[in-house]
């Protein structure tokens, strides 16, 4: 009996996670296609064939839902660095692979999504706070990668360098979203090479 009860509990959790994932995916599609102002809980519920009340069990209001979508997107971006195969014997090649993965990600519809998130951050404090939290997480992750290559740098120097590298990547991401690098895979590859080389040199020579 205990085993059956545990099995039912696990099944309920799994179904709940699946439903939550479906809701987030549907909300993301609407945000990309129509924007924040056109998104409504009723619309999302209708597209999934569930009641608004059922949807609100997971996300009580529209901004809770949008914040969850943004958080999920941020986490997926952070996972790119976590999943990167870092070779300490060949840091230059490893840097290129990581930069290329990030820029390719931003060249996809993810880049459009980040632009929407930036717009929301300008108008609503909760999304501005979410953006700040995302940057803090990025800075920490970049600082940890710097430490692998430059363990001799003090923490404040690593943080300063991390801020510079994140700014560099932000600019590169804008280029693949809206500039010439958005035109082709070849352009993204070339930009990735140039940015990776700049990052490698900055890390190696930072004092």
In sequence order, what are the helices and strands, one letter per element?
Answer: HHHHHHHHH
Largest sheet entry: none
Report the principal-axis shape: elongated
Would you identify the regions where 5 or more consecutive residues have pLDDT less than 50?
none
Proportion of residues in extended strands: under 5%
Under the CATH scheme, the architecture of the largest domain is: Orthogonal Bundle
CATH class of the largest domain, named Mainly Alpha
User: Helical percent range?
Assistant: over 70%
Task: Explain this structure.
- The protein has 9 helices and no strands.
- With 207 residues, the chain is mainly alpha-helical.
- The model has no long low-confidence stretch (mean pLDDT 87).
Provide tags for this entry.
mainly alpha; Tetracycline Repressor, domain 2; Arc Repressor Mutant, subunit A; about 210 residues
Outline:
This protein is mainly alpha-helical and 207 residues long. The protein has helices spanning 2-34, 41-48, 52-58, 62-83, 91-107, 109-123, 125-149, 155-178, 185-205.
Show the helix and strand layout.
Layout lengths: L1 H33 L6 H8 L3 H7 L3 H22 L7 H17 L1 H15 L1 H25 L5 H24 L6 H21 L2
């Amino acid at each position: 009996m205990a085993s059956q009860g545990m099995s039912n509990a696990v099944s309920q959790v799994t179904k709940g996670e699946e439903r939550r994932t479906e809701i987030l995916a549907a909300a993301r599609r609407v945000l990309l296609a129509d924007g924040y102002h056109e998104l409504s809980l009723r619309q999302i519920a209708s597209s999934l064939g569930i009641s608004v009340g059922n949807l609100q069990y997971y996300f009580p209001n529209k901004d809770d839902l949008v914040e969850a979508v943004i958080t999920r997107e941020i986490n997926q971006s952070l996972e790119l660095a976590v999943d990167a195969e870092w070779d300490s014997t060949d840091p230059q090649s490893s840097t290129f692979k990581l930069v290329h993965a990030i820029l390719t990600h931003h060249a996809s519809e993810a880049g459009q999504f980040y632009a929407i998130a930036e717009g929301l951050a300008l108008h609503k404090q909760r999304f501005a706070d979410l953006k700040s939290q995302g940057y803090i997480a990025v800075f920490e992750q970049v600082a940890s990668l710097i430490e692998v290559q430059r363990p001799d740098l003090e923490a404040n120097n690593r943080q300063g360098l991390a801020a510079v590298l994140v700014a560099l990547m932000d600019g590169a991401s804008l280029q693949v979203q809206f500039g010439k690098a958005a035109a082709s895979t070849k352009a993204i590859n070339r930009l990735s090479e140039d940015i990776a080389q700049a990052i490698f040199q900055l890390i190696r020579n930072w004092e």
